[in-house]
Design goal:
Layout: H1 3-9, E1 21-25, E2 29-34, E3 37-43, E4 46-49, E5 55-58, H2 59-64, E6 73-76, E7 79-80, E8 83-84, H3 87-104, E9 113-118, H4 124-136, E10 141-146, H5 147-154, E11 163-169, E12 174-180, E13 183-190, H6 194-209, E14 211-212, H7 215-224, E15 242-249, E16 255-261, H8 266-285, H9 289-298, E17 300-303, H10 312-320, E18 324-325, H11 333-348
Parallel strand pairs: 1-9, 9-10, 11-17, 17-18
Antiparallel strand pairs: 1-2, 2-3, 4-5, 4-6, 7-8, 11-12, 12-13, 14-15, 15-16
Helix pairs in contact: 1-3, 3-4, 5-11, 6-7
């Protein structure tokens, strides 16, 4: 019996049809839901011993080891751009994650049934990889649900609107989808996400201030002071936001504290902003003109971690001259929509 099987077998078993375990496995974060509630979320990251391949840490603890471990250990992100790059590491991550949930969570998880939300555009080979990864982790059954179906039910007002368009701006990969009468008309996925902006912050701080900072500190900087306002008409007149950051001097290797400003990152962000807008403009160019007009009149919905970056909503509104909607917890839209989708469709059955 797998480690997942052993953990789950020790828990009270409910109906796996009525209460499946729901997974949203993203390139940066994995979330688990059960009975409509998020029971756990962790960075999709695993640290293993280089020789034995034993799991050393997962999630936040594994991320904290980036740049701090010797060559005896490896820190791995098993999913990149919406695809598993290491089936074995992905299965080990899922096993260790469920063990952690079983120990830490008071919520009683259910048997071996799992439902996983996956990118809208997924080849049969890629679908089989998902099935294999979850099977190797010890799950008896794995049902895959396309993200477009999930978001249409959760935020798209299924059956209520003639057209619906969303941009899912994720950690490493983004997806744009247009529906007409609840049917997918066009999709476009591309390599763009919040990780690129976080890594750009790391590089810029090193270049401008000659210090090295961790990925976590760079992420905090992005969230707290970085903004896309300079790329929005009138936005460049906003007062810069400053922040004190401590890192390691690349010359002396000693600790060093510097003051950084939101203005420091305008130039380095310009390339990514231009690339993002080019991809979305290309997407609209592949859609019939009358449908684009209807979509832009009714507005678009944005979700995903990058959508929450300061100035993103205003940037898209001014660029495409359309209303842009988003929730207050954009990173949780897919996960919560999956729970709603499963609840509705299981009831229909």
């Amino acid at each position: 019996m797998s480690r997942v099987g052993a953990v789950l077998s020790a828990l009270p078993v409910f109906s796996t049809t009525q209460y499946p375990l729901l997974f949203d496995v993203g390139s940066t974060t994995t979330r688990l839901m059960h009975k409509g509630k998020i029971v756990h979320q962790e960075p999709t990251c695993i640290a293993v011993h280089a020789r034995t391949r034993d799991v050393v840490a997962i999630g936040s603890k594994a991320v904290s080891l980036l740049g701090k471990v010797s060559d005896k250990f490896e820190v791995i992100f098993p999913m990149v751009g919406g695809e598993f790059v290491s089936d074995k590491m992905a299965s080990l991550f899922l096993e260790a994650l469920l063990q952690k949930v079983a120990v830490e969570s008071l919520t009683k998880l259910v048997g071996f049934s799992v439902v996983v939300v996956v990118p809208t555009v997924l080849s049969p080979v890629q679908q089989q990889v998902y099935q294999d990864v979850f099977a190797a982790a010890g799950f008896r059954s794995c049902r895959l649900v396309a993200e477009s179906d999930v978001l249409l039910d959760g935020v798209g007002g299924k059956g209520k609107k003639e057209t619906f368009c969303y941009f899912d701006l994720g950690g490493q990969k983004s997806e744009a989808v247009i529906f007409t009468l609840d049917e997918v008309i066009q999709t476009h996925d591309f390599a763009m996400g919040g990780v690129l902006f976080t890594e750009a912050v790391q590089r810029q701080v090193r270049l401008q201030h000659n210090i090295e900072i961790s990925w976590q500190i760079a992420e905090t900087i992005k969230q707290e002071i970085c903004t896309l306002a300079p790329f929005v008409t009138g936005g460049s007149r906003l007062k810069p936001i400053k922040m004190t950051v401590r890192g390691k001097d690349v010359v002396t290797q000693a600790g060093k504290t510097v003051i950084i400003s939101s203005e420091d990152f305008t130039d380095t962000f310009s390339f990514f902003v231009e690339e993002l807008l080019d991809e979305l403009q290309y997407f609209f160019s592949t859609v019939p003109a009358h449908l684009v007009a209807e979509t832009l009149e009714s507005g678009v919905f944005i979700t995903g971690g990058l959508s929450a970056m300061a100035g993103m909503r205003e940037l898209l509104e001014t660029t495409f001259s359309t209303p842009v909607r988003m929730s207050t917890q954009s990173q949780l839209d897919v996960c919560k929509s999956l729970a709603l989708y499963i609840g509705q469709h299981e009831t229909e059955r």
